[in-house]
Amino acid sequence: MIEWLREEYHRPAKPAPAPTIELSGRTLPIALNRHPRAKRLTLRLAPDGSAVRITLPRWCRSADAVAFAAVRREWLEAQLAKVPAAADPVARGTIRYRGDELGIRWAEDAPRKPALEERAIVLGGPRDTLPHRLQRWLESEAVRLMRADLAHYCARAGLAAPDLRLTRAQRRWGSCSSKGVVRVNWRLVQAPDPIRRSVVAHETAHLVHFDHSPDFHALLRDIYEDDLAGADGWLKAHGRGLYADFG
């Protein structure tokens, strides 16, 4: 009896189940992120609609964060309704590239590596790996184009071009680290050129001003040759749609 009690006493407690919330007939997980500098609760819906994300201060109880999401259910459902339905570009027969729609031309005897032809991407190889290889091709194009963009804007700002890396972040289009590494979301290769370039210019300006001060905005206006407000508006209106393919 004593041994049994000892086993019960030392048995580890089962982890609490992850919190969830019902939104428009769907059950979504709630991801809680405790941030050391957070002073209040911040609620977001993942861009692909797969989860509700809450950033909370260290002192905040998890139960209070979950209750906060429940209070904002109507707002979350409205955001969920804006999320584009996941799409299969192979079934559709096109992929988005630089603001255009490229036809997908598959031929059994064509090379496995995708090749860009006039308004079409041509490739062979196994059909079941087409989505993966098409995404890899888009990512390689993103690197090529964004490195050229970064070199261009760094030259305009009088800087040496730093390293560029792709990111698959679901909320941020770009970032610049304190070590000068610029990261840009690969999905921007699907957007029109001025949209992608506005993000690269934005991160270039952060190489000089690591904030959003008036000096930062002045430099960004100086190096970016197109319509900044228009690019920001496009991302707000259409940015979520870039997550529909290759989800």
Task: Summarize the structure in words.
The structure is a single chain. With 247 residues, this protein is an alpha/beta fold. The protein has eight helices and eleven strands. A hairpin with a 6-residue loop joins strand 3 (42-45) and strand 4 (52-56). The longest helix has 28 residues, at 130-157. The radius of gyration is 23 Å and the shape is globular. The N and C termini lie far apart (54 Å).
CATH C-level class of the largest domain: Alpha Beta
* Global geometry: globular
- Give me the CATH superfamily of the largest domain: Metalloproteases ("zincins"), catalytic domain
> How many strands, what sense, and barrel or not for the largest sheet?
4 strands, mixed
Helix content: 25-40%
What's the helix count?
A: 8
How many strands in all?
Answer: 11
Distance linking N and C termini = 54 Å
Gyration radius (Cα, Å) is 23 Å
Give me the CATH architecture of the largest domain, please. Answer: 2-Layer Sandwich
Write down the overall mean pLDDT: 91
- Work out the strand percent: 15-25%
By CATH, the topology of the largest domain is Zincin-like
Classification by helices and strands: alpha/beta
Order of helices and strands: HEEEEHHHEEEEHEEEHHH
Low-confidence stretches: none
Number of domains: 2
Order of strands, main sheet, comes to: 1-2-4-3
